[in-house]
Structure formats: C-alpha cells, structure tokens
Write a structure and sequence with these properties.
There is one protein chain. By secondary structure, the protein is mostly helical. The chain has one domain: Farnesyl Diphosphate Synthase. It is built from 17 helices and 2 strands. Helix 5 runs antiparallel to helix 7.
Length: 369
C-alpha cells in the first residue's frame, strides 16, 4: 500500500484524506486522458482544470475527488483482514500501492462524463467558477468529450485485467457498467420530471438512487472488489456508498437552492430557476399544506415562462422553507449518513479505516459546495 495513504488513514480529516488520495489517483487520471486524441485531450484537460481554453497550464479546481477517494479508502480499510475471495490473493496481499487505483480512476471518469453531459442538458454556464465545456466549445464537443471519458473509464479497468494488474477487473467492470446504466436512468428521469406536475416523493427518491446513489455505491464497492473482499463485504460497502449517495444528493439539493454562489460556483436559486423538482421541493408540495399549495401554483406559473427574476425565486425558496422542506431534507441527509455507517458495523475493516470512513460520511452532510 501507498505509505502516504497508510499514514493518512484514521489520523486526518476527510478533506485531508481526499487531498492525500488525490496524489495517487490524479496521475492515473492524467495518464488515461493522455490516451485521447489531441483535441479531445485538450477539452478534457480543460474540464478537469488542468489547462485553460487555449491549452495553457492552469490550476483550476477539478472537484473534491470524493468518488475516487472513497474507492481507495475502501480498499485501504480492508487491509486489516477482510475475508479473502477464493479466486485471488485477497486484501492481505493486495500488490503494489492501492489495488483499487484502476477503479478510482474509472469512477472519476464516469462521474465527469456525467457532469459534462449534465451541464449541457441543464445549460449550466459555470462549474467550479469556470465556463462549462459546451459554452467554451459547443454542444457537439461536450457530447463527444463526455463519451470519450466514459470509454476511458472502461478501458482503464480492461487494461488492469489484461496486464495482470488485477484478477478482479472483470467483476469491477461489470459493477461499473451496471452503475452507469443506473446513473443514466436517473439523469433521464431528472429531465422528465422538470415537465411533469405529478412527481411524487417516491419518484424523486428513485431518480436520486440512480443519478447519485449508484455511482457512489460502486465507488465504495469497487474498492472492495479490487481488494479481493468477499461478497458480504462488497455488499456492505455498496450499501454504505449508496446511502452516502442519497445523503450527498439531498445536500446537493439544499445547496442548489440556498448555496452561496461564491462557494458553489453556481447562481443562487439555480435549481429553482431551472424548475427542478428536487427532494425539498417535492416534499414541500406533498406535505407543506398552504405553503405547499402556493409553491405548486408558483411552479405552474414558472413552467409557463422562460425565466424568473431573483425576487420570484426568493419567494419560492421561502415557501419551501415555510413548508418544512428545508428542515426535512436536512434531517433525511443525517438519517442516510446513519444508515451508511450502520452498513459498516459488521465488516472486517481496520479501526483507522472505520474512523476515516465515518469522518468522510459526516463530511458529505457538512460540506458547503
């Protein structure tokens, strides 16, 4: 295992862990992107914050690295004795560095494929305080570079298996493919819900399970798979990541309405401006009594117009808060974090690994961007 990761686990905050883990997966991500043709390589590098639009080196942010950091952390936490699978070396003999490295790179590529396409679908003009890919180039380029990232993700795991770097690469690839299918389902439903006035809370939770829960679930479980853990352990990490994903999306929904632009990099009330039926909105529509009915009327008027000014958006945000949607969402995020941690209780992971996983789970609900 990487000595830097071993030193970090259990002794640092989640944010510090993610920074340390990035030192391992970021070179692998850059090496994968280098396999693209020159044009797609420059566009992808721009999206990741490595270069500006002209290809000059840049120090832009590429995000928190939660998914690859989680994959590496899962594998690291298992080094203290998860039951080995009968078809490989198991977690006690994982090989050089972290066995989940190809999985970490792959999940980050899938995540960013979805972000580039999501920015295009939502017509978002900024991400991490920079213009998005489709605004710098065009719609077609955004589609193609997203597709290129997705192909690189599966190539990364294929190369790990073909070169003998992992005997579990096929299982990891199948898990990632299934998660990607679910992610796409969730994204498709998210778009459909914008034009529907009958979205239920169950509908919304199902969408979130696909759009966000699936990729965080596989981010955790792919680390366990590549570390050679038994099926019970893989399933436990999958549940941990899935519940964490639900918490993550709920916090994202809160930030999409009340997040500060200078922190999130997106306009205030961005989700309301896009008429998104996010979880706090849908709960308020179903449970908010008078305020919920006023919010329903606002959405009916909102979908008939192309834009709403800041005053109107503030009015809608106030209705959600009055209906109790904001408080409910915050409580649900905490409940999903508790469920995530409960999934780890019987797993054979190290004390240090459990401590860092716990801090990472709380980091999800306490973040501001």
């Amino acid at each position: 295992m990487s000595e830097r990761l071993r030193a970090a686990i259990g002794t640092t905050s989640a944010r510090e862990w993610l920074t340390t883990a990035k030192g391992l997966w970021d070179p692998g991500l850059r090496a994968a992107v280098d396999r693209l043709d020159p044009h797609m390589r420059r566009v992808a590098a721009y999206h990741f914050g490595w270069v500006d639009a002209d290809g000059n080196p840049s120090d832009g942010s590429a995000g928190k690295g939660l998914r690859p950091g989680l994959a590496l952390l899962a594998a690291e936490a298992l080094t203290a004795g998860a039951a080995p699978r009968p078809d490989g070396p198991g977690p006690d003999h994982p090989g050089p560095d972290n066995p989940a490295l190809p999985g970490a790179v792959a999940v980050e590529l899938v995540h960013n494929f979805s972000l580039v396409h999501d920015d295009l679908i939502d017509r978002d003009e900024a991400r991490h305080h920079r213009p998005t890919v489709w605004t710098v180039w065009d719609d077609t380029t955004a589609i193609l570079v997203g597709d290129a990232m997705l192909s690189l993700a599966h190539e990364e795991l294929g190369l790990a298996g073909a070169t003998g770097g992992s005997s579990y690469a096929v299982a990891a690839g199948l898990a990632l493919t299934a998660a990607t299918r679910e992610l796409i389902r969730g994204q498709a439903e998210d778009v459909i819900f914008e034009s529907r006035d009958d979205v239920t809370l169950e509908d919304c939770l199902g969408m979130v399970a696909g759009k966000t829960g699936s990729l965080l679930a596989v981010s955790a479980s792919i680390g366990a798979i590549l570390a050679g853990a038994d099926q019970k352990t893989v399933d436990g990490f999958h549940t941990f990541g899935f519940e964490l994903g639900l918490a993550f999306q709920i916090v994202d929904d809160l930030l999409g309405i009340w997040g500060a632009t200078e922190v999130t990099g997106k306009p205030v009330f961005a989700d309301l401006a896009a008429a998104k039926k996010t979880l706090p909105v849908v709960w308020s529509l179903d449970h908010g009594c008078d305020a919920g009915e006023q919010l329903r009327e606002w959405f009916a008027r909102r979908t008939a117009r192309s834009q709403a000014d800041t005053e109107e958006l503030q009015y809608a945000a106030d209705l959600i808060e009055k209906a109790g949607g904001r408080a409910w969402a915050a409580e649900q995020a905490d409940a999903h974090v508790s469920a995530a941690l409960a999934a780890l209780e019987d797993l054979p992971i190290s004390d240090d690994g459990r401590a860092t996983l716990t801090d990472l789970a709380h980091f999800v609900t306490e973040r501001k961007s």
